Amino acid sequence: MRIISKEQLLNLREKYPAGCRVELLKMDDIQAPRIGTKGTVVGVDDIGSIMVRWDSGSSLSVAFGEDLCRRIHDDR
What we know:
With 76 residues, the protein is α+β, with helices and mostly antiparallel strands. The chain has one domain (6-72): SH3 type barrels, CATH 2.30.30. It contains one helix and four strands. The radius of gyration is 11 Å and the shape is globular. The N and C termini lie far apart (32 Å). Residues 6-72 form the DUF4314 domain.
């Protein structure tokens, strides 16, 4: 796990505000949603993990420096 700076954390919170939609690009976890799964951001925690409510029902966070997602404009 990488340490996140205050500036990086602020940038993440600006880029991924609660309610925005994301698509999973990479997550190395046996219980991860499938790549391409979409979800709604709940928030960004103090260590930079993007907390997501995935459309598949999962709630695994996107870990800073490990996993990847991208913001999308999706009406579901």
